[in-house]
Q: What sequence folds into this?
């Protein structure tokens, strides 16, 4: 396992105890991780490295390589004739959907009436 991979039980950014949620937030909070996961989630077929890099826009090859390695080590993606979410990665995306909805409500709240949540 990569030494800098956020792992539950080890100190991570924001937590000296490495609580599992903090390790997760450290991992998905890294630059480009959520974009990579999102692009894999919406892909019609497992994209190649080049296809994934194109889908992600401005990501550099070195950063994409590092993120793919980290996400593979974390068990969230797999590589076999392209990159794809594992069942664990798919469940993560499913669990992030309520946060996506909350973020939309937060956006509406900030744009509109600041005294109430929708």
A:
């Amino acid at each position: 396992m990569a030494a800098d991979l956020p792992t539950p039980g080890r100190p991570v950014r924001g937590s000296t105890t490495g609580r599992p949620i903090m390790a997760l937030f450290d991992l998905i909070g890294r630059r480009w991780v959520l974009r990579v996961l999102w692009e894999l989630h919406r892909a019609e077929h497992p994209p190649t490295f080049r296809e994934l890099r194109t889908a992600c826009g401005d990501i550099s090859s070195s950063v994409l390589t590092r993120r793919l390695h980290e996400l593979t080590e974390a068990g969230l993606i797999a590589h076999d004739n392209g990159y794809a979410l594992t069942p664990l990665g798919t469940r993560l995306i499913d669990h992030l959907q309520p946060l996506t909805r909350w973020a939309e409500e937060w956006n509406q709240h900030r744009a509109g009436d600041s005294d109430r949540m929708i």
About this structure: Residues 87-111 form the longest helix (25 residues).
